Amino acid sequence: MSQQPVRIIGAGIGGLTLGRCLLKYGIPAVIYDRLPSAALHNYGVTLHASSYIPLVDILGLDEFTFRRRLAVDGSLGGSGNINPKSLIYPGKVSSTSFRAHRGKLEALLREGLDVQWGHSLEEVKDTPSGMILCLQNGHKVESACIIGADGPHSNTRKSLSPDTPSHVLPYVAFNGKRQVERVLFDRVYTPAFQGTSIIERKHGDVVLNIAINGEQGDAVSMNWIFSRPARGSNDTLYKPNRPVSGATDIPEEFFKEIATLHGLSQPFREIFDAEKMRTDRVLHWLMRTVLVKRRELRALADRGVFFMGDSVHAEPILGGQGANSAIIDGIELAKCISACGSGGIASWYESRYPAWENGSSESEEAIAMMHGV
């Protein structure tokens, strides 16, 4: 293809993987992101060998170095190991899966890339000479190849395919982060983790999850998740129609429900303490799925706009494989562009779409199995 840069919207895992792979193939790319600078993303994502082994080759690293560099518990002497027996529903997790620190992964992928921060997309305009990116800082960029990789709330998709719905699954989920003093971590958490980086327990229809995010000075950053099925139309914690900005609005009913979780073993008793959780950074998650229809993708491809990752096929955070799918999309899409140019992406859609459909249905099944539904 010509040396006009590929324009990528979104500097998340998918967009960065695509950019890094294009760099390896000698194809210029520019990545635009709405944030003023790189996000810290101090939490872990589960990676499977099927996605990270090909990525290791692209990055020119060996698997041992890759895992030790990115493991959430690397500074604690671990390698991000996951014991499938510590999970309620292991799903695709195997002995080769591991927990990678998302911030470190994205920093590794960004090396050598042209990332334009503070470039939030306002709209994409179709003109006789090509597509134009209209950015909120007033910049306008014409391009023959635009790739939306800006997540499940993709402004690129909303600008060009506004009728694509997002489906909210009937589950309640809250996520929190806490700094734990190293002394307390060694005494209470280490015996329960037993060399793994994530543990789960079931309490009725509630799933409780605790994971290591990393070490910060004399403290260890921990991540927790509380999730359960929605309990009918009167469930005060199930708010499928809340705005995106409402993720930080945590109702008092949540803390009251946490206070009813009696008989927990350590470290679940330590983490799921209603009063301590009030001082945590807490987010109310919605389990969303999105899948753009094939005919929409074909029509947009004819105009030089393409999608990858969860901007086109979002899976719920729980039970989903979003990070792995985004990595595979980035690797395979870069191969396609290198071999066939942007004109080959339409056929790439046809080869990947069945996997996207399966990923959506499998993630819904996984979250149901996890909660015993």
From TrEMBL:
Pathway: Secondary metabolite biosynthesis. Keywords: FAD, Flavoprotein, Monooxygenase, Oxidoreductase. InterPro entries: FAD-bd, FAD/NAD-bd_sf. Pfam families: FAD_binding_3. Its cofactor is FAD. Residues 107-340 form the FAD-binding domain. One of its GO terms (molecular function) is FAD binding. Belongs to the paxM FAD-dependent monooxygenase family. This is FAD-binding domain-containing protein.
